[in-house]
Write a structure and sequence with these properties.
The protein has about 375 residues and is an alpha+beta fold. It is about 65% helix and about 5% strand. It has eleven helices and eight strands. Helix 4 packs across helix 7 and helix 9 runs antiparallel to helix 11.
Length: about 375
């Protein structure tokens, strides 16, 4: 017996739902078409060229700090790539450092030591309520106005100089450096695998695997093996003062240092509250049960409480990572050449502001979605699975 045919009726909620969604989609499509058409018409009337063809033209301007090779003879596309890499570099370092500092301060907020608790609380309340832009100006002024020139640079350690050009220090050079970096990456991967195996081993036997000592051995041994395999060809490039600046070594610019310090200190205050609330969300009985097994407070926090608190911490932590990444756009205020600064220079020279803004929007949208996808994947991975 065939099923009765469904009659379309306006009284059917599902029919009305489909109609409303189609109308809403049509309205959005019409609005987008109107805006794009109107913009192209106005640009054509003013003889303003459109498109992204300018990215293949010679840029003709210098960028003060670049993680990849760049000269003014390179294209605008290369310049935009330099700005994007600079943004990714500051965002990645900022996320790692802010997470470490914020976690430590969040744990300190719950300390039974009165002084530690109060200092952590003061830090959080002050840093959260001072605007980030003001903090960036403060750190930049501190690093530039109170520092002497290269000839009068402070020399706290051999080969290390602090001046208004930034922090200059020795750097490693040679073929062995690549081998040592490979050994370091291998050590990180081995530590992650050992940690996973150690948890499984503890669940089966009840014995705690000494992961800390094993990781220390890996982080020392594997880079050392890489150094030996490369023929021990590693040289120390010590900076020297020649003329009006230092030659050799590596220099951490005041702009980069000020931006990194501002982002880390500001964001860590919010992360500290996320960590504190996540730990407090774990039932007090978990502390008492773990303590009754003879575990120390630090072991209880690391082995019992924090793994459960992560399920509460991860979602708001994702928002803080996204905020840090987007707040890095304030770099233009202190002269750090991030993607916003580079694209601003590009659109001032080419006059193609719409394309420039679209490039910035696409870059931040891609980075933010990538962070969200990874954090959502990790959140699902640690979520409780009901049986």
């Amino acid at each position: 017996m065939s099923a009765p045919k469904r009659r379309l009726s306006w009284n059917d909620p599902s029919v009305r739902s489909v109609v409303y969604q189609v109308l809403a989609l049509a309205a959005v499509g019409f609005a987008v078409w109107y805006l794009v058409s109107n913009t192209l018409t106005n640009l054509s009337a003013r003889n303003i060229s459109t498109g992204f063809g300018f990215l293949s033209r010679e840029a003709g301007f210098a960028i003060g700090e670049s993680a990849i090779a760049y000269t003014p003879a390179d294209t605008y596309g290369r310049a935009v790539m330099v700005g994007l890499v600079n943004t990714l570099k500051i965002a990645a370092l900022g996320i790692v450092l802010a997470t470490i500092l914020g976690t430590l301060i969040g744990i300190a907020r719950l300390s039974k030591n009165w002084l530690v608790h109060k200092l952590a609380r003061i830090y959080v309340e002050v840093m959260r309520n001072v605007p980030l832009l003001l903090q960036l100006f403060f750190w930049y002024a501190l690093l530039t106005e109170n520092a002497a020139g290269p000839r009068q640079a402070a020399n706290p350690l051999p080969g290390v100089f602090i001046s208004n050009r930034g922090l200059t220090m020795p750097s490693l050079e040679g073929q062995a450096l690549d081998w040592m970096l490979g050994g370091l990456i291998l050590a990180i991967l081995c530590t992650i695998l050992l940690g996973h195996w150690g948890r499984k081993h503890q669940e089966k036997t009840g014995r705690v695997f000494p992961l800390g000592r094993a990781a220390l051995g890996l982080f020392i041994g594997l880079p050392l093996i890489g150094w030996l395999l490369s023929g021990a060809s590693l040289a120390l490039n010590v900076p020297e003062l020649k003329g009006f600046n230092f030659v050799g070594g590596v220099t951490l610019s005041p702009e980069f240092a000020a931006l990194l310090a501002g982002l880390v200190i500001y964001t860590s205050a919010f992360i500290a509250e996320v960590v504190r609330s996540g730990i407090q969300a774990v039932n007090q009985g978990q502390w008492e049960a773990a303590g009754s097994l003879g575990l120390k407070r630090g072991q209880v926090l690391r082995l019992v409480v924090l793994p459960q608190a992560l399920r509460v911490i991860i979602p708001p932590m994702t928002s803080q990572y996204l905020n840090l990444t987007k707040n890095s756009s304030l770099a233009v205020a202190i002269g750090y050449p991030d993607i916003v600064s580079v694209v601003n220079t590009t659109l001032n020279q080419t006059g193609q502001a719409i394309e420039g803004i679209l490039i910035i929007m696409a870059a931040y949208l891609t980075v933010s979605l990538s962070i969200s996808i990874f954090m959502n994947w990790y959140n699902k991975r640690i979520a409780l699975v009901e049986r």
